[in-house]
Design brief:
Layout (H helix, E strand, L loop, with lengths): L4 E5 L7 E2 L15 E5 L1 H4 L4 H11 L15 H4 L18 E3 L1 H7 L4 E5 L9 H17 L6 E5 L3 H13 L3 E6 L5 H9 L3 E5 L3 H11 L5 E3 L5 H7 L1 H9 L7 E5 L4 H15 L8 E7 L4 H7 L26 H10 L3 E5 L1 H12 L7 H15 L9 E5 L7 H9 L19 H17 L1
Parallel strand pairs: 5-13, 6-7, 6-9, 7-8, 10-11, 10-13, 11-12
Antiparallel strand pairs: 1-2, 1-3, 4-5
Helix pairs in contact: 5-6, 5-9, 6-7, 9-11, 10-11, 11-13, 14-15
Length: 446
């Protein structure tokens, strides 16, 4: 029996389906978001141990395209795509960092950081973009009128789209909020040859515009409301479990902005559960910045209502989103996983990122939000110190050097507890010795 997948409306009262080569982002009947559904009956014809062996045999191999952390799970992602149309940059396969020292500070023995930023464009967005761009390449080969792929972005999505489109030879268009992303993030799509449009608005404003322009079927939408992205991003949960020899962590913490990532994480874990590879599900925690926390506000009301907000400027710029597109999917996922939502202040996220750095990490501010959330949950006894915890680091810290410079120079709007400014000295041995003596004495006292 061949493996098959298709788009399906998430509204169970509607349940309309569409082929994956359709240019469609919302249900044409009821307007709800879509998700990719798989023929689980066919997938169940292979037992759990056989799936595990297949995934292990492929993992980081040189056999095209299965060495990719995404395409090694091809049957669970896009089973019908021609391998010749796959656009892969060897995404996924990112390492789990045992945060031994940071864990000891918190009293946790089993804390791991999933370093999704150790990827081609420096963020977890590569996982979804390889799937979307590959499917577009397939559709173009079948005669679809697509001329370019477009996205709204706070930085990481645009970088991933631009680099995968560059590899595929497909034009890319990115809409960015002017002055609201780091220089490192801005230069990535520029360097990859994208058409970069800097709009004098925030991400939500860019999102409104990109949804309008992609009503033209010659421009394909690449934001996470397109569930092809979710199919790639769901492999992060599968990969985490695989890296722990198919044992499931107790808690997984993930930063949340547009909220496609939490629904993707849940989708991969549920698929593993339904196919018998795992027997339990972890608790999922979504971490939000206090200045952009619409999901947290809804969580406080038991998800009975949701109201978009005007997101305020936050150091965690990639999750500065007040009207997340994937809100319905995120809430559904959190209910399935006994989920928790926590927010963090600017000082909390900055200090948590900096403290993590002193123990061997190099965190983006969004990972700082997740680490601050972990600290708050430990202090509130909502995570037991014996539990196996994974924090998902969404991007590489080198994308946010301006944030780190401001922190260590002490130029942010709050005291920076772990600031570490360079000491300027004259070029004399006695001056250097005096500085060393003072530093070592201070360290011994701490």
């Amino acid at each position: 029996m061949p493996y098959k997948a298709w788009f399906q409306c998430i509204n169970h009262q509607c349940n309309t389906s569409y082929p994956l080569n359709s240019i469609v982002y919302r249900c044409k009947i009821c307007g709800s978001l879509l998700e990719v559904q798989h023929d689980m009956r066919a997938l169940n014809r292979r037992d759990a141990k056989a799936w595990m062996k297949l995934f292990e045999d492929r993992y980081k191999s040189t056999q095209w395209p299965y060495g990719s952390g995404v395409w090694g799970k091809k049957e669970w992602v896009l089973p019908q795509i021609d391998n010749n149309n796959i656009v892969s940059l060897y995404e996924g396969g990112t390492n789990l960092f045992w945060a031994e020292r940071f864990g000891k500070i918190l009293g946790l023995e089993n804390l791991w950081i999933k370093l999704c930023g150790n990827s081609h464009s420096g963020s977890f967005k590569d996982l979804g973009m390889t799937v979307l761009v590959s499917q577009v390449k397939q559709m173009i080969s079948e005669g679809a009128p697509i001329q370019a792929i477009a996205c709204a972005s706070t930085g990481d999505t645009s970088a991933a789209l631009a680099v995968f489109c560059a590899a595929a030879g497909i034009p890319s268009i990115v809409l960015l909020p002017k002055g609201k992303i780091s220089v490192a993030q801005l230069v990535q799509p520029i360097a990859s040859g994208a058409l970069v449009l800097s709009l004098d608005t925030d991400f939500d404003g860019c999102m409104r515009v990109v949804q309008e322009i992609t009503q033209d079927e010659t421009i394909y939408l690449a934001n996470s409301m397109n569930s092809l992205r979710i199919e790639g991003q769901k492999t992060v949960g599968i990969e985490i479990v695989q890296q722990f020899d198919w044992e499931v962590p107790d808690v997984i913490i993930i930063p949340g902005g547009n909220l496609g990532n939490v629904s993707a994480l849940g989708s991969g874990l549920l698929m593993m559960h339904d196919l018998g590879l795992i027997a339990k599900l972890p608790r999922l925690v979504v971490a939000q910045a206090e200045l952009a926390n619409p999901l947290y506000r809804s969580y406080l009301k038991n998800f009975e209502t949701f109201e978009p907000i005007q997101a305020q400027k936050t150091l965690a710029s990639a999750i500065q989103i007040g009207n997340p597109v994937s809100i319905q999917k995120a809430i559904r996922t959190l209910k399935q996983f006994n989920g928790i939502v926590v927010d963090a202040t600017e000082q909390e996220l900055a200090d948590a990122a900096a403290l993590g750095d002193t123990t061997g990490m190099f965190n983006c501010p969004h990972t700082g939000v997740a680490l601050a959330t972990l600290i708050k949950l430990i202090n509130a006894d909502k995570i037991d110190r014996s539990e196996h915890v994974v924090v998902i680091s969404t991007a590489h810290g080198l994308k946010f050097t301006d944030f780190k410079v401001q922190y260590h120079e002490g130029t942010l709007d709050f005291p920076c507890r772990f600031a570490n400014k360079p000491i300027e000295l004259p070029p004399r041995v006695d001056a250097v010795k005096e500085a060393l003596r003072n530093a070592l004495q201070k360290r011994s006292k701490n």
